[in-house]
Design a protein that fits this description.
- This protein has nine helices and nine strands.
- By secondary structure, the protein is α/β, with parallel strands linked by helices.
- It has one domain: Rossmann fold.
- The protein has a seven-stranded mixed sheet with strand order 3-2-1-4-5-9-8.
- Strand 2, helix 6 and strand 3 form a beta-alpha-beta unit.
- The longest helix is centred in the first third of the chain and has 21 residues.
- The N and C termini lie far apart (46 Å).
């Protein structure tokens, strides 16, 4: 019944406007409002522009500039923490790719590393056009829903895909895993996230059973690449299906922090 109602609301165009109102009211607080006023009047701490409300909503389902910046900072700091925990030093990277970069919520925080070249690519042309025009620290390009990327073999030391596989079905996940392998240098690191056990609370009972059988669960598979397409997969499924040519370095299960609920995988090209 829940899935049926969602489909009806999506068809009449209510889901996005409803999410905008509900999420914005739910997330509001005095601290957020103070930071929001500060960022909108004085700009973001890194000195680069922030996206328009429409594009922020497409990425995080609210229009708060402060949430766009601070959530990206939280995820970035945790990403670096997980790398450091596994004795991987960002300072040793030369080329970094944000696969599914959107409007730069994460990649803008990598500008603290002056010795790396930053690249971003995304399936959404509107998002990548904004990033190309406004985030002058990096090189941004468009990709299609399916591989390939235009990069040469063995180019990147580090590729990360935060909340990308979470919106792709089985065939595209496998295809992109192979493509990321191609563009990584030997020994290069791939960081990606999935909807794991910690995110299954919203699933129907039949979907939970499917997840527990280590099968892929995909909602709205007809619109892969869109945030409304949601994919859920167990650690066992990932290990059996997505680690094409990679060695698993670490798996970090999703946590309670609202920005860190997704499972993290750190793998290495061998």
């Amino acid at each position: 019944m829940k899935t049926f109602i969602k489909k009806i609301l999506e068809r009449i165009g209510f889901i996005d406007s409803g999410r905008l109102i509900y999420n914005s009211i739910k997330s509001i607080s005095p601290a957020l409002l103070l930071k929001e006023l500060k960022y909108r009047s004085s700009g973001l701490p890194d000195g680069y522009p922030y996206p328009p409300n429409k594009l922020i909503f497409l990425i995080i389902a609210v229009i708060w500039v402060s949430e766009y910046y601070e959530s990206g900072k939280t995820i970035f700091k945790d990403l670096v923490k997980q790398l450091n925990k596994n004795n991987i030093d960002v300072n040793k990277f030369k080329n970094i790719l944000d696969f599914g970069c959107g409007v730069g919520r994460l990649i803008r925080h990598f500008t603290i590393y002056s010795n790396v070249s930053l690249f971003g690519t995304d399936y959404n042309y509107e998002l990548i056009d904004w990033a190309s025009e406004n985030l002058t620290f990096g090189e941004f390009s468009k990709n299609e829903l399916e591989p390939p990327l235009y990069f040469e073999n063995d180019k990147f030391d580090f590729v990360y895909a935060r909340s990308v596989f979470t919106h792709l079905g089985e065939d595209l996940q496998k295809a992109w895993s192979k493509e990321i392998y191609r563009i990584l240098k030997p020994g290069g690191i791939f960081y990606f996230t999935t909807h794991g056990l910690n995110t299954t609370g919203s699933l129907e009972e039949s979907e939970v059973k499917k997840f527990n059988r280590n099968e892929l669960v995909v909602e709205n598979v007809s619109i892969e690449g869109d945030n409304k397409c949601a994919t859920f997969e167990s650690k066992e499924y990932v290990e059996q299906n997505l680690l094409y040519g990679f060695k698993l370095i670490d798996h970090i299960p999703g946590r309670e922090d609202e920005h860190l609920k997704q499972d993290i995988y750190l793998v290495q090209k061998v």
